[in-house]
Amino acid sequence: MSIKFKILSENKKARTAIVKASHGIVHTPTLIPVATLASIKSLTPEDLQRLNIEIIIANTFHLYLRPGPDVIKKLGGLHKFMSFNKTIMTDSGGFQAFSLGLGLEHGVGKIITGNNIKKSRDKLALVEEDGVIFRSPIDNSKYKLTPDLSIKVQENLGADIIYALDECTSPLSDYKYTKESLERTHRWAQRCLEIHKTNQSLFGIVQGGEFKDLRTKSAKFISSLDFDGYGIGGVFGKSKEHMYDVIDWSIKPLDENKPRHLLGIGAIEDIFECVELGIDLFDCVAPTRLARMGYLFITPKSKGNKENKFRIRITNKIYKLDKTPIDKYCKCYTCKNFSKAYLRHLFVSNELTYHRLATYHNLYYFIDLFKQIRESIDQNKFSKLKRYWLK
Amino acid sequence: MSIKFKILSENKKARTAIVKASHGIVHTPTLIPVATLASIKSLTPEDLQRLNIEIIIANTFHLYLRPGPDVIKKLGGLHKFMSFNKTIMTDSGGFQAFSLGLGLEHGVGKIITGNNIKKSRDKLALVEEDGVIFRSPIDNSKYKLTPDLSIKVQENLGADIIYALDECTSPLSDYKYTKESLERTHRWAQRCLEIHKTNQSLFGIVQGGEFKDLRTKSAKFISSLDFDGYGIGGVFGKSKEHMYDVIDWSIKPLDENKPRHLLGIGAIEDIFECVELGIDLFDCVAPTRLARMGYLFITPKSKGNKENKFRIRITNKIYKLDKTPIDKYCKCYTCKNFSKAYLRHLFVSNELTYHRLATYHNLYYFIDLFKQIRESIDQNKFSKLKRYWLK
Hints:
2 copies of one chain form a homodimer. Chain A is an alpha/beta fold and about 400 residues long. Helices cover about 40% and strands about 20% of the residues of chain A.
């Protein structure tokens, strides 16, 4: 079934809503935790349930390379494969056209690691009219990801919400390249809609780099097509203010009765600014990846603020004998049972249990933050909450 | 408080009993999972509770190096540090006198990894009359572990059951060395009893290599001292039959009203043979370490047997599309929710969640095996159960 989207409350441009999909309801605004290879690293579906996580996103490109969409299809699709019975989204693989292509060439964006990448800045992805040619970071083999293949792969993976193939340009791309790329992305969007036959919901992506006219054009065009929701893509590199402008330009022309997903952004400050602009969905590896790197989130009550990016680094020697939890106001399993000293010991000793306790806390933190955000919008107090956090 | 030990039923030499310690009751025979650095790798205390794990063992040597016994003492002791409120045991550090000393020199026993070890076969431990001189595998610094220090460290760690310092000899040690070592171990045992002042229970260790007269002598001597229980130590290298003889010699002279712990042994076959000889407690890294290496245990009903060591290797290509659980008769969380194909995918992709699901299954398997063993002894059917498993 196609998703149903219902706005529940509005506070200026910010809004709360529910997305009703085949595997249940998603309350927005919310975070979509990233299950790159069909698992939230170190957690189980039972943890996700306990964390009240209603939606996750898996990566088409990564699952295409392994274990392969045919394997997952034969095993009953992603929900059955990973034993998660709530909403699953997959991306199109288009972001990797950036991160393994222009992103790698320009040295911007996410760092992707793999056997062959560390050695050179050679691009592993090349965009052509009909698709993206990839070299696998695992074994160097060649693949061509076309709009048709992206949809086919996502149909086999069987998520509830899937994405049209796009090209994510680099912040260093000029106007001419960005415009050409955008027009190609639009042709791909149309093609994806044409061939899409399952009852999965299909989202289209707004691109256009940092250019106002291109963003407006893209959002108008994507909004004119029969998508179930919208992604806003791009690498928003230059400054926070500019980033918020770009997102605002991208949102304005969209149908307000469809969900808006800001792809790959998840810093606390950005969440508040973008919810304020009307974003409903955020996906970001930050909470889980930062946990594994030793960064644990703390609330304003526990001295989290813009300067410390709302987090502590657990390796810090000051925690060696610290009996207190990461955040004494946090009610998560980790904070109710373990001290910073213990977590630091586990991290320093490379103990696997660390990853789990840390990941659980960081996700709990973000899920709780979004709960506060939704309540504040419902109560017309979003600006107050935003001021409290970003003061 | 000292432990209380009560035998509940006997079936020839095999027996069921309860060990009542300050943090609750332990039903024996049972497995003591190994929490080397104060965590069962990848699991939480909540998992341990769900697995009905009543006792774990942590490693004095490893915790001495990091985070250090003073740190753990200041943080309230091991129970509070790791948030585990059932029985905890610590070893004496003596086994590392072997694994970093003669074991390394002779190329036998456990492989210990560390920054400096891979480069050479140089011993990192040297046994002297008053203790063991270690070089740390972490940073090469020198330590001398004496009976006094071992007890002091274990008092600071605060486990319910602690161990007297011993030297574990190598299967390649000759009679003369083994005898000298044994006499030293006995002097250390007496010294540990002399200086032990807390209300922790103190266990002594029987050594004596492969020599019947030394084993008998050691067991008689250790039994004559005021220990709360006994460890049977040694590396039982030559053959299974010889190993069972050595264990039998070590048990016979012991006070039958005290618990007997076979140190470091945990293969399925050995468990049956040694329960039959009267062993109450087993500690072994096998279930958890093998899980992390991709080996998952299966019962006889699922074709587990002596030949396949009761396990499958999850990397096997035949599992790529296998929709069935590790063991379809197993009722653990992993088997109830995940296919071998999914576990294989997680393992091959280095996903952290793999370790947890695998470790959980393997521990569930051993805990369940011991439950079956206890029931069979209670019902006078131990031999039948043993035949069924080892047929």
